Amino acid sequence: MAKTTITAALPYANGPVHIGHLAGVYIPADIYARYSRNVGKEVLFICGSDEHGVPITLRAKKEGITPQDVVDRYHGIIKDSFEKLGISFDTYSRTSSQTHKNTAQDFFTKLYEKGVFKEISSEQFFDPESKQFLADRYITGVCPKCEASDAYGDQCEKCGATLSPMELINPKSALSGAVPVLKETTNWYLPLDEIQKNFLEEYIDSKKGKWRSTVYGQCKSWLNDGLRERAMTRDLDWGIPVPVKTAEGKVLYVWFEAPIGYISATRELLPNNWEEWWTGDSELIHFIGKDNIVFHCIIFPAMLHLRGDNYVTPAEVPANEFLNLEGQKISTSRNWAVWLNEYLVELPNRQDELRYVLTSIAPETKDSEFTWKDYQTRVNSELVGILGNFANRVLVLIKKYYDGRIPNYQRTEEISSLSEKYIKPITEKLNSFKFRDAQSAFMELSRMGNKFLADSEPWKLVKTNPRETENILGFAYEILCNIAICSEIFLPETHSKLLNSLNINLKETQKTSFWADSTWYIPESRNTIGEVELLFNKIEDDVIDLQIEKLQNSVPAEATSKPEKEMISYDDFSKLDLTIAEVKDCKKVEKADRLLHLTLDVAGEVRTVLSGIAEHFSPEEVIGNQVLYLQNLAPRKIRGIESQGMILMAEDSDGKLRFMQPSEKVNTGAKVS
Q1: Where do the domains of the chain lie, and which CATH numbers do they carry?
Q2: Nearest partner of 438 among 356, 512, 494, 500, judged by Cα
Q3: Are β-strands 646-651 and 132-133 bridged in parallel, bridged antiparallel, or unpaired?
Q4: At residue 599, what are phi and psi to the nearest 5 degrees?
Q5: Beta strand spans in 350-508 (E)
Q6: 161 Rama sector, left if φ>0, alpha if ψ -120 to 50, beta otherwise
Q7: Which of 7, 139, 250, 297 could hold 242 in an S-S bridge, CB 3.0 to 4.6 Å?
Q8: What share of the chain is helix, strand, coil (3-state, %, to 5)?
Q9: Cβ of 654: how many Cβ atoms within 10 Å?
Q10: Pick from 513, 509, 514, 480: which is nearest to 497 by CA?
Q11: CA distances from 447 to 282, 387, 390, 442, 484 (A)
Q12: pLDDT of 619-658, one tens digit each?
């Protein structure tokens, strides 16, 4: 059987992973890798940290540390987060490794020796104060398209336009603020224009009707516009040195060496047979976001083709669209994101809940949106109310009526019918990379099970027709076994819990038959069930309210004086009833680690406010402080307590909260305008 190499886009090691990354790349890649293994394919699932590139050097400069310090920190955070979420990489490497350096330089050298590159001299921006050439991201200026004042030399993040540094109005160096000057330099270019006709067009056309229309369409758009040579080296001091004697002070372009990271990670894991996964009849599948399509579908295939040596080109590239958050684009610079490492701490033991919700709203064909309220609804109504409810009812009834013994039973529905109706739809969707629909088909098993129990009512028949009760609960157990097998693909933690509760030990041959042949599973043994445990717990309002409040109060480290949100009129501002209040009493809210219960004095009136500041202040530190109080915010109940408004805080660059207070003590109730 041919080998299948599955790659997930290398995340930049200049920050943690957020839910947009998970929904767009890592969860769908993991679903497909798990499915492919269970079908019986020989699979290698590859990823690693992308540790070169300008964003990393910019963060290092801002924090006053080295780029290596930055990547060491975030590589550890990212790797740990993926492991805790259950992303089943066979290896998670990094592009700062010696193996990657050797592999990338060897790849460049082979192309160089074959005469593939064009050596081109051109004028590029140079910082006269920092005395170095400026990569595109080191240059900022006014966007010629939308006139945004902080566009980068390669892209305007406001309007999304692709730019070149020469197009910027009033360009300046992001390093020193100096006006850059043009200076001649030499770099090595990949001649994409020369292989457009004799390779790339034929390659992309062969994917028509196979790749997603958005992926194929974007590739055709690039080809229709006409490809040009593209520089594969840069004048930088952070990256992999160009292995050419005359290339001192130059590094490999990050988008040249980053995809080679898939190869070097394979080589690192399997030093003796890594080539088997990249040559011959092996299959290569890339999971990426839509912003990386050109690199994985045009530039990397061009590199592999020009390298020769029987390297395979990507067979499938199921790129996803973007995930938005609470009505806005996810923005790492504005801290408008839900970070995976923080989620795992703040909502512990809810990995599968996040996987489920993000798969339910996966942006497969168009941009989609995550909201905390929708997350809560999906978890409570679907995972708790449907899947968890069915599992608990079946197991509890077997414990109650048969002391945990799995009843002997006879099913009335044919196995072929059950396979066709409930298993085949899942595998068909997985084979066509429609993971959202596949998960929805998986949930149909639980819906069917709940309806079956509701219609048969075994709790009523147990005394009058015990044989029929055994048939009902025995078949319900069988349904739950099939749910357990399916859950390994979508909900790995839930899968482990179900196997323990059902007391089944699946053989590899049974799993392969189930997935490869879409065959309904029949439990072989009639033993007793294991320990019954709840699969999911309901998410309460206060948990969600705190996440929403945290998001709305987040302040980016890069905070500037420019408006972060849309302009409002004075009439809008005047609707806010801001006043000075004094905290008269404060106590912790039971079973809520982050909530404080504040009693405020507002001109002699008593108001109650719940605030998520317990991680920053003890109750004793809060009492006696005058605070800025928004008193006409609609009341809401949290933990059964009505919170009447909100106190406003400031967050400094270290993440420490500060009270917003008048410079001198004033009477409570004093208006702020």
Answers
A1: 3-109+252-320 (3.40.50.620), 115-234 (2.170.220.10), 349-516 (1.10.730.10), 568-672 (2.40.50.140)
A2: 356
A3: unpaired
A4: -110, 120
A5: 368-370
A6: beta
A7: 250
A8: 45, 20, 35
A9: 6
A10: 480
A11: 39, 8, 8, 9, 14
A12: 888 999 999 999 998 888 777 888 999 999 886 544 567 8
DSSP letter assigned to residue 241: B
The answer for 403, left when phi > 0, alpha when psi is -120 to 50, beta otherwise, is left
Helices (H) and strands (E) in the chain, counts: 24, 25
Identify the burial level of 617 via C-beta atoms within 10 angstroms of its C-beta, where 0-12 means exposed, 13-18 middle and 19 or more buried. middle
- CB-based contacts of 143: which residues, under 8 Å, 6+ apart? 149, 151, 156, 158, 159, 161, 163, 168, 169
Rounded CA-CA distance 235/187 in Å is 8
Name the 3-class secondary structure at 361.
coil
C-alpha dihedral, 496 to 501 to 503 to 508, nearest 10°: -20
Question: What is the spatial distance between Cα 112 and Cα 107, in angstroms, rounded to a whole number?
Answer: 9
CA atoms within 13 A on the CB side of 457: 5
Neighbour tally for 376: CB within 10 Å: 20
Contact criterion met (CB below 8 Å) for 43 and 31: no
| Nearest residue to 612 via CA among 634, 626, 594 | 594
CA angle 639, 644, 650 (to 5 degrees): 95
φ, ψ dihedrals at 538, nearest 5° = -60, 145
Two structure tokens written together for 489: 């693909």
CA distances from 66 to 15, 58, 378, 471 (A): 15, 10, 43, 67
- Measure the CA–CA gap between 310 and 600, rounded to whole angstroms: 73
Question: 342, exposed or middle or buried, with CB in 10 Å at 0-12, 13-18, 19+?
Answer: middle
What pTM was computed for the model?
0.81
Q: Give the 3-state secondary structure of 47-98.
A: EEEECCCHHHHHHHHHHCCCHHHHHHHHHHHHHHHHHHHCCCCCEEEECCCH
Closest CA to 425 of 408, 406, 447: 447
Q: How far apart are the first and last CA of the chain?
A: 72
What's the chain's average pLDDT? 92
Please give the torsion angle defined by the CA atoms of residues 397, 402, 406 and 410, in that order, rounded to the nearest 10 degrees.
-90
DSSP at 390: H
DSSP 624-638: T-EEEEETTSPPEEE
Identity of the residue numbered 468: E
Q: Which amino acid is at 369?
A: E
| SS3 state of residue 189 | strand
Q: Which two tokens stand for residue 399?
A: 């414990």
- As a whole number of angstroms, the distance between CA 536 and CA 631 comes to 37
> Tell me: the pLDDT tens digits for 209-253?
999 999 999 999 999 999 999 999 999 889 999 999 999 989 999
What is the three-state SS of 285-333?
Answer: EEECEHHHHHHHHHHHHHHHHHHCCCECCCCECCCECCEEECCEECECC
Question: 638 and 609 in contact (C-beta within 8 Å)?
Answer: no
Whether the CB-CB separation of 157 and 151 falls below 8 Å is answered with yes
Report pLDDT digits (tens) over 47-97: 999 999 888 988 898 899 999 999 999 999 999 999 999 999 999 999 999
CA distance linking residue 649 with residue 663, whole number of Å: 15
Give how far Cα 413 sits from Cα of 394, 417, 421, 475, 556, Å.
19, 7, 11, 10, 58
